[in-house]
Amino acid sequence: MQNEPKHLLFIEDLKKVYKNKVVLDDIDLAVSKGEFCTLVGPSGCGKSTLLKLILGQERTTSGRILMEGRELLLPSDSIGIVYQKYSLYPHLTILENIMLGKQLPVSLWRSFLKKKAIRLEAMHYLESVQLAEHADKYPHQLSGGMQQRVAIAQALIMKPKILLMDEPFGALDPGTREIMQVLILELWEQNRMTIFFVTHDLEEAVFLGTRILVVSQYYTHETNGKQGVNLGSRIVSDYALNRNGASSPQIKETAEFGQLIQRIRNEGFDPKQCQTASEFNLEHFDSFQTFG
Amino acid sequence: MRNKKIWFFGLYADPPVLLRVILALLPFVLLAVLYLAASNIRHAENPHDKLLPTVSKIVKAIENTGFKKNKRTGTYLLWHDTLASLKRLIIGIMSSAVIGFVLGLNMGLLPGINNLLMAFITFIANIPPLAILPILFISFGVDELGKVMLIFLGTFPLITRDIYLAVKKIPEENIVKALTLGASQTAVIYRVVYPQVIPRLIETVRLSLGSAWLFLIAAEAIASQSGLGYRIFLVRRYLSMDIIIVYVCWITFLAFLADFMLRKLISYKFPWYNLQRSN
Ligand SMILES: Nc1ncnc2c1ncn2[C@@H]1O[C@H](COP(=O)(O)OP(=O)(O)OP(=O)(O)O)[C@@H](O)[C@H]1O
Ligand SMILES: [Mg+2]
Fold first, then answer.
1. B113 plus B25 within the same structural domain
2. In what order do the strands lie in the sheet with A281-282?
3. Percent of chain A having pLDDT more than 90?
């Protein structure tokens, strides 16, 4: 592909095999700057695996992943991540957790000298997730929703080129979840971030994303006609959603919203409805498929 | 009926404060009464009984060992012995803690090091330390080094394995996250993993102190010129139960004190440690 550097993230012909189980197969994906990609798919289809590959925590079996044209060999500060759990360090206070990203890259002595400035900056990020008054508490003293907000602030202070999120709101109750969704949209707008967001909640995916990727193992292979679980997952649909600014949760009530969710459910989540690869719904303008 | 508090019996018993204190003290009181009664009976039969000395004899033993210079050695026996024993105990357990910590930390994080050492440490851990005491005395001498080595060999495998497990229990997410926050691999070890494992080290040292005392007293009983264990086994020859009882109580108190202080140290310095485990 000649347009590589144009994209922030570029994945070509990616394949990932664990022992003899093919998890991901023929993944082609280009992500532009500023996009809010949501990734959905059935449980076990390899969503977390894809994030690990992008992060550099795992090696691809074949194919390549480029961040701004360069391959990543280890997790580094150019990519941020927020997990469903375990993003925070139990031995540090909330503020210290956020400061960590400014302290770890420099020597102990330097971070000691700059402590005041770092503290101020961290406080700013803590305010942006509305938790300033909890600065001196420990993570276990906060509710799940608050912990996730801290985790987001902790990642944001690094100003990562791309922020990966693996079911970050998966353990939250519906009310808190919606508040968090609005918050992440606001932060995305303010900071002009690129986000790659994994969820198994279709409503959340459609509400948040400017682009929705459906990854699934339920499709019919174009050449050998095989179906179902023995196949590596692929991107089976790729939707572009128009969004002018952060939308309000009211759009979840509209008919269009419901129809899109139903469509995604049919295309990616129903083992009985397998499309062949040529039928994949890849309407996003960045979408491309190569067959290797 | 509903508001009635159950005092003692059953799953839902909720004794009032005073009763709790009384209950806690009861076994101690019973033991003391039992002892005094038995001692009295024996002394009624034979005023020179040595097996169960009276309270006054025990007080006398405290005076003689703790507050009077020993005529033969010119020292206060109890303090002299305590100092000698504590020195061995502390050096032994500290070297176990340091070495166990470094090994456990590296084995938990670095698969290469783990491969190199795990089988070997499991092997050492399965040697009964007292069985090789003669070897230790022969190779390290019957002086201080031999005793310290016994304590060290008896406690460090457990500490190593415990730290190893504590490191393994840190979720991988936690470590990947540190890398995305710009940490180098060294920084991950010393600024993310290390501070999370330190309280666990104190805890495992606390639990290892029991066996450390055992090895200390065993080593002192066999070959020594001073020490709490040495004294107990020395005066046994003269059937000086009064001194033995004083020494045993003193050792128990020291062990309790160490345990208590280490527990307090954890809850004071690492307030997050016990709390985060409960949820
Ligand atoms: N280290 C590994 N070794 C072997 N198999 C693995 C490994 N990691 C993941 N897998 C397998 O890869 C598949 C995809 O796992 P992954 O965690 O990426 O799924 P997921 O889409 O994130 O699922 P979920 O929605 O449940 O989080 C699963 O079948 C899993 O068993
Ligand atoms: Mg997952």
1. no
2. A79-82, A162-166, A195-198, A36-40, A211-216, A234-240, A281-282
3. 41
Residues A96 and A188 in one domain: no
**Choice among A258-272, B82-96, B135-149, B237-251 with the minimum mean pLDDT:** A258-272
d(CA A178, nearest CA chain B) in Å: 25
Q: Reduced to 3 states, what is the DSSP secondary structure of residue B46?
A: coil
Its domain, for residue B141, covers 66-278
Check residue A228 and give its pLDDT: 57
Residue nearest to atom 16 of ligand 1 (CA): A46
A142/B contact by beta carbon, under 8 A: no
CA of A48 to the centre of ligand 1 (A): 7
Does B109 share its domain with B231? yes
Ligand sitting nearest the alpha carbon of A215: 1
Taking CB atoms and an 8 Å cutoff, what residues of chain B touch A74?
179
Domain boundary (A159, A185, A203) is at A159
Restricting to B residues 26-55, those with a Cβ less than 8 Å away from any Cβ of A are none
Same domain, B17 and B150: no
Q: Which domain holds residue A6?
A: 1-78+170-292
Cβ of A112 closer than 6 Å to ligand 1, yes or no, is: no
Q: Which residue of B has its CA nearest to A94?
A: B272
Last residue of a domain, one of A159, A190, A220: A159
In ligand 1, the atom with minimum distance to the C-alpha of A198 is 22
Nearest protein CA to atom 1 of ligand 1, as residue: A18
Domain check: are B94 and B229 in the same one? Answer: yes
Q: Is A285 in the pocket of ligand 1 (CB under 6 A)?
A: no
Residues B46 and B115 in one domain: no
Residue among A153, A166, A130 nearest A51 (CA): A166
The one-character DSSP state at A76 is -
Residue A70 sits in a domain of what CATH number? 3.40.50.300
Q: What are phi and psi of B143, to 5 degrees?
A: -80, -150
Task: Please report, for residues A13, A109, B62, B69, B141, the alpha-carbon distance to residue A97 in angstroms, rounded to integers and kept in the order given.
Answer: 37, 18, 54, 58, 51
Write the pLDDT tens digit of every residue in A219-270: 877 776 666 557 788 888 888 887 655 567 777 888 888 888 888 888 888 8
- Is the same domain home to A53 and A177? yes
Mean pLDDT of B21-50: 93
Q: How many domains does chain A have?
A: 2
B177 touches chain A (CB under 8 A): yes
In this structure, are A233 and A208 located in the same domain?
Answer: yes
The burial of B183, by beta-carbon neighbours within 10 Å (0-12 exposed, 13-18 middle, 19 or more buried), is given as buried
Size of interface A-B (CB pairs under 8 A): 72
